[in-house]
Amino acid sequence: MPPEFPDFQPEDVYADRLPPSRVDCYPQEAGILALAIDGRDRIGFAFDDGRIAVGSLDSPAEFVAFEAHDGVSLALCAGPKGGFVSGGDDGSAVLIAADGTRTELLPPGKDWVHAVAASPASGLIALGVGKTARVFDAAGKALGATAPVASAVTGVAFNPKGKRIAVAHYGGVSLWYAGGLTGTPKLLPWKGSHVSVTWSPDGRFVVTGTQDKELHGWRVEDDVDMRMSGYAAKVKSFSWSADERWLACSGSPLVTAWDFIGKGPMGRPPHQFGGAEEFLATHVAAHPKLPVVAAAFEDGRIEMGRFAVEGQVLLKEVGGGMPTGLAWTADGGRLLMTTEDGEFFVVDLEDLKVAAKEQKKRK
């Protein structure tokens, strides 16, 4: 069972902080560009020298690094059946199993691999390679490629069943059936460049971050589109709440969460939280079981808040390098953060739970 969220009240959260939770740091041998966790809580890092490191929280100081790219990883995700998928600026893409077995999906080439995604439901992998999206099975067998889109592919995302793929590019998003990549895609149009994409867990909405520092969304059933503005930077980190209702986003000093219940967020203001106006949220991660979301900020701080409830709690103090990844373990018991300086932080939520109860008793 996942741990319960600390029982704090809104008036408590602007105190200096809750009594310290345990935050462990495990410095790595190189800068970290990306973080991923597979379905078995194995951890993958993309180092800034082209290697991918794989390890476990059972031995957090003992990660093993494997050669992946003659350059750097541009995108990293958990594989559909475990392990990790990485795409590089050398045009290569690899599937690395937990034991280090390396399966080459693409050899080095002229087109960068800007985006990767995997679906545990269908066992498929999608890569954004130049102006096309390419699909592979869990063993690394190539299944096909889309026709070229209007620009370089900047994001790929599967629908919940893993049978359709959203491909972000200039001018909007193209929706393809993974088994029919030679067919005509459904286009969700909107002018300008789209730099990231997510498909809602209930399959009803596709949302992108744009070059114009906005979100743009479409209701898939009837193509109704919606615009969500007010960001200070391009939105590159999304996370859906466990109940599939809220979409939390980076790109602002305040963590912003939009309510997608019913027909979507049109006409409703977002829920926001955050404690320092001068530093932007770089990464967000919704808890896998509970209605809370964590955010990492440019100053190294980590905060956590409830959806639809004012206020936040501080999980990690300011300090460390620029965050490059944020993720929960599958049971929601620990929160992980990586930085460009090569730091790997582990925040233990069980300790925070105990600390919150002790503070409540003292009042």
From TrEMBL:
Gene3D superfamilies xref list: YVTN repeat-like/Quinoprotein amine dehydrogenase
One Pfam family in the UniProt entry: WD40
This protein's record includes keyword Cytoplasm: no
Ranges: WD repeats: 196-228
Keywords, ordered alphabetically: Repeat, WD repeat
UniProt name for this protein: WD40 repeat domain-containing protein
Organism of this sequence: Zavarzinia aquatilis
